[in-house]
Amino acid sequence: MLRLLPSLLLGVQIRLDGSGSSMCSGRVEIYYNGAWGTVCDDNWDLNDAHVVCRELGCGTAVRVRDSAHFGEGTGQIWLDDVACSGSESSLTECRHSGFGTSNCGHSEDAGVVCSDGLVRVAGSGSTECSGRVEIYYNGAWGTVCDDNWDLNDADVVCRQLGCGMAKSAPQSAHFGQGSGQIWLDDVDCSRAERSLAECQHRGFGSHNCGHGEDAGVVCLGGQVRLSGSGSTRCSGRVEYFNGAWGTVCDDHWDLSDAKVVCGQMGCGAALSAPHSARFGQGSGEIWVDDAACSGNDQIRLAGSDRCSGRVEIYHSNAWGTVCDDNWDLNDAHVVCRQLGCGTALSAPQSAHFGAGTGQIWLDEVACSGSERSLAECRHRGFGTQNCGHSEDAGVVCSASLPKPSISMNHAGEVTWGQDVSITCSISTRALGGIFILQKTSSSFRKTQKSRTNSATFNIFEVTLDNEGSYQCQYQTGGSRRNFSSPLSDSVSLSVTVSLPKPSMSINHAGEVTWGHDVAIMCSVSTEHLGGTFILQKTSDSFRENQTSSTNSATFSILKINFDDEGLYQCQYQAQMSSRDFTSPLSDSVRLSVSLPKPSVSMNPAGEVSWGQDVGITCSISTQHLGGTFILQKTSGSFRKNQTTSTDSATFTILKVNFESEGSYQCQYESVVLSQNFSFPISDSVRLSVTVPLLQPSISLTSPNGGLVWGPEGAQVTRGYNFVFTCSINTSYSEGRLSLIFSGSNIVNTKAAVNQSASFNFPIAEYEHQGDYGCVYEVTLSSRKFTSTTAVMMSVTITCLQIRLAGFGSTWCSGRVEIYYNSAWGTVCDDGWDLDDAMVVCRQVGCGTALSAPQSAHYGPGTGEIWLDDVACSGSERSITECQHGGFGQHNCGHSEDAGVVCEVSLPKPSISMNPTAEVTWGQDVSITCSISTQHLGGTFILQKTSGSFRKTQTSSTNSAMFSIPQVDFDNEGSYQCQYQTQVSSRGFSSPLSDSVRLSVTVPLQQPSIYLTSPNGGLVWGPEGAEVTKGYSVVFTCSINSTYPGGVFSLISSGSNITNTEPAVNHSASFNFPVAEYKHQGNYSCVYEVTLSSKKFTSTMTAMMNVTIKLPLVLLASSVAVGILLLLLLVLVLVCLVFRRRQQAKQPGALVQTQLTVRNQYEDSEEEEHYVNFEPVHSRKRQKEEQRGTEGEESNEDHDSEGEEDNESHIYVGSEDIYVIVEDNGEEEVYEDTVGVKEAANGGESNDPDDDYVTQQYDVGRRDLPGELYESSQYRPEAAEELQRNV
What we know:
Oligomer: single chain
Shape: flat
Structural class: mainly beta
Largest sheet: 7 strands, mixed
Strand content: 35-45%
Radius of gyration: 60 Å
């Protein structure tokens, strides 16, 4: 029966199917788009299974099955990558790849095993396949009542347990009484059901039984199952269990063999015996080959246990007994061997194990003892007998047990105090026995009863006493006899005590300040406490011991000095079982002593306003107080000292100006033990001076009332006086304000008095019409600073003045009066309407007309009535442009004076922000709203264009300032102003102003970088830092910042190193324990800080060049080798010079010289010929010439002095060699065609066919060849003359 449930949302059904499936376990299938399909097991887990089980009403998921555990499905794979949270009501509500989208095959079909409907066997004497039947339902285990309980019911349970067919169906709580619920009663199975819950019964929890009626089963054993692709409960690949599931080879596999399997599975007759992995290839072991069954091979023992009992065989679909006629030990041997129970110990007769029921299949059995099954023995034939069940035959087998296997969960040596487990296991069907673990060399012995084929023995916290060899044995009983297996092989338990290498730490990382206390902690991770920690120095005799009852000890070194520098290591010693154990030495930590660098800070930070006071604080972390702080400028002669008894000093710079700008550093000097110490110079802080100027404001007045305000700005009546006033809020006492007029390019400038200046225009003319603005300029320390221009004010010059007057009048309501002919007069209300009022309202700078009162509504005027019968269209710019009876022409009295009520029109306010542009995070900001109107006493509103920010401020002037303290990124955005006022009990609002943008920035100074070497491997050269290879170096990055936290990055351009460390007190150190050539390069620091989820990064520091050099010993050896090579070279040069001088004194030396021959031809073409001239003189001639030369040596100096001022010209005739030697020792080569006599007289040769061969000799080097050479016209006397003179 398939279990399915509809999904209300998608119309999807779900069911469990497949080989070995039940109502609540099986392959998951869903019905979608008109077809059933499977679910892929990718990411399939218990959360997914929980949803399936809950959807099917099968309780909770017990386990997940993957890899087509219940056989491969067919058709669609509907779902893949299912990811349920476990709370969904349907599998289709879980996340998945989409219906029909998968990358799986049916070998990956997912399955579930749900809690409801599960069965188990339990109770006294129960085994894996026998015991009291219990079923899981509604979250609890319960029993089954034995009313109508029979072998059909037991078969279904055995098959559900994977234990084959039922051997018997015990009743009356045979395996002891259960407890709790009795879930089923009156069970009636047909044997075709897949689970007990599918059988007919009274309903879960409905019964009339007690636990004394609990039903049980005894199964043949879970040795055979049917599996594979397309398998069902009664068809599939045959698999046999022998400690693990394996397959059966198809050699000689036939219908007789299949008949035995079908009978064992309770599946009726065999229809076919497929070969060649018809149901797919299995995996693992192939347990059985060459099976040869007769078809009647099923046999079981009843009435006792697995290896003793009444003999029953299965034939013609029914179990029956064997008659004891002629029953003996040979017959019993065959039965015991067939059952895998060893040899027969006895062959009981006369229904020793109780009388059976049903058929008596065999009689007068006569086995030789060698047959493979009882059916092969001689007998009278199936069903032929003359016996009753009181003669039922039985057997008692030895239950032959194999040698157990033994394993230990920690192979090899085990650490002292560790827990060890030894597992004994055996491959047998005789389960429910006792495992024995014993030591080969002592009385140690432990026993453990097990229902499975293994048992695990735990030995907790092993000591040296537990060392030795261990063996296992298995014992089981049958027919009141016990059987023991051989002893297993042995495993050896060796115990060792291994103390780990201690760890150590120093409470001051990096360099430690001179005079501070240092604590070095040694700790070890071990349970062997109560030992001794040893702290020792690697380079001298320092050694301290400390016994500790914990796993650590702290060694204190008080008031360190430079003698304490060096490497320190820890070791731990402990005693156990009267044996001493020592740990390895820990890694070393280096203690380096240094003087601290002061820190410097400035208040206020960032740019400082000109004239403001600034405080620079120097502080130092040291115990040596009472010293002197020095504040100095990095450039210039500025220097201040301050002696203090505390660890800090503050230097005040009053009223800073531009000369105060620059970088400042601190240094600390102190006397310690009569010795002067100058501490390192601090990092620098930058003092930058700025002059912040607000935007000036501009206002307009008319002393004689010639000003009105319209929607486009100010309207001044021509001829009237008007005055502009420029003002600014500033702390600078001097400066100038300029009025800028864009209409006529007028620029007027006046000195600011009380931060304001007025610009008077006595008579308004049309040329004054235009836009006006103000600019403020101040000069400080010879520098000029200019503000931004105030918002431009538009001024229009009008020709006629008009006003609203009378009782209760306002700026925009009252009796209409016009100024004409030097007098004010009224307007008669004859024909007066809203169009006339509209023109007046526009002319006086108010809004639209609301009403046109008549009959002297605002009281009668006096004097002239200038206009009557006014008829305006409403579009005129002035009332005088409307039709009327003429000035002074009327038939009215002042009781008919006309009036108007206008809407108040407010101009758009202006808005400004201080400071302008970007604002530093945490700075105070002010936003000023101002408006050009005479309707003062209203309310200014500042609001953000996005968000709920809104502030209001009532002001009696034409402006209001809103302060935003300590801005952050939440304050960023655009701001606008609006002005509201009340006139004649009516409220009026101006348009929104233009917006100003508030942008918040985080200015970061450039970090500083410096380099140290704790073990002295650093020197500074002209190119930068030089670090000795193998020494440690530490880069320290720091920054002067007001922002908390942040990280520093150390960047190396030479080796692509980028390390990042968190900033602690605005600095971070990067340690390189061993300097290598790969560390050579340029280093710099970058600082990054996150504020309100935004990251800000500083500029990079200037690059620091680091060179890795050889240690001094290697360098010295290299220098020595270089000096030796240089001396050797000098010696070789001396020898060569000496040899050359010796050669120069021997003119007879043979020399072969290449000469250049130039011929001049009539066609003026030149061609170079190279001729080798060979020596022609014999040794005898050479010696004679040598003697002649020696005789003349005494006159050489004299001859050369006499010839100093003369040129020596030596010639050889036409086509001969010649050389001209100048008196300065240089040779001059002539290549002209010159004869002997012509050249001597300075003449020129006329013979173009003369050939000359030239050879240059360096006389100063004495390399003139001692041999003469042969040419086509060789003359010995000329050559000898040449040699002697040279």
